[in-house]
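Write out the 3D structure for:
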Amino acid sequence: MANKDHKKKKPSALSVRPGVNDKHDGLPDNSAISEGDTSPRRRLLTAQQYIDGVLSGDRALLARAITLVESGSRAHQELAQEVLTTLLPQRKPARRVGITGVPGAGKSTFIETLGTRLTARGHKVAVLAVDPSSSLTGGSILGDKTRMEKLAADPNAFIRPSPSGGTLGGVARKTRETMMLFEAAGYDVILVETVGVGQSEILVRSMVDFFLLILISGAGDELQGIKKGVVEIADAILINKADGPGLQAAQLARSVFERVLHYLRPATEGWRTGAFNASALKGAGVDEIWAVVEKFDALTRASGVHQKRRQDQERQWLHDLVSEGLTNMFQANIDVQKQLSELEDRVARGDLPATAAATLLLDIFNKKRPD
């Protein structure tokens, strides 16, 4: 009876999955399926089935395609690259907006309010979240996204967490590939949220067009708790919760940041970063922020900055992939593994300089033997 009830439920955009790691890839193993079993939910699909599903906007197949690119299995990665290579020329680049902010700033509320307004205008909105620290918990970072119930139920929105258990490089690769799938599926707005304020902000900046920093007032010195580097990469700063008794403080905070931004180099050539007020809970100021994004998009496209940024991002992605691949090969090298622990201990004891140990390991990796 439970199975029948389960089949009647409609698929939700809020499909929060456990993080993907090397021990479990979330995909079926065809070898474990009996011959003649053709259930599409139990067997690994062909590349063409994934491609057709994504292009047709099939949400279930899109979710499975994302799981495919997140997989750490070599076989799945080969299949994923075949899918991505075919979809690449068929995608329509979306507006990519990065969103970050201090804890409690109201990022989820803002994303839901903005997302529902955009879908009401006919946009298809994808929400991704990047949190490399999720490897500490071993699960999805989007537990708090259960509060985005309205957007999660919207048929023109799709919410997806980043895979856990990965390094910054691994999360970056999978996030970029997931964005490609969304663009191929017809999503024209991609909101990439990063949790906290730290190194992951630089990562997200390298994947998006427009970067929004969300803050709140009333927490003491407005510049405390955030890093200067994060302010410097923002294309706009939004002081949220500008309503009720917090309105005056939010307006004051905006004035403070406007003065600060006057002395900082703009994050994007030809664009002046500004500070704004909004109340995501009440919806005030949200449309104005999107108007800023649209103005930014028009200006950077006309000046060529948009195209140059996208090209630079693709080049950087290539270099990141090569670095990630070389690191994985190095760590998997049997000869390196045999010597690594001993050399680490010698470096820790001060018996061997780290530079010398690194040279030895690289020589071993290259199959060279020191004299």
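Confidence is low (pLDDT under 50) at residues 1-26, 28-41, 134-144, 219-225.
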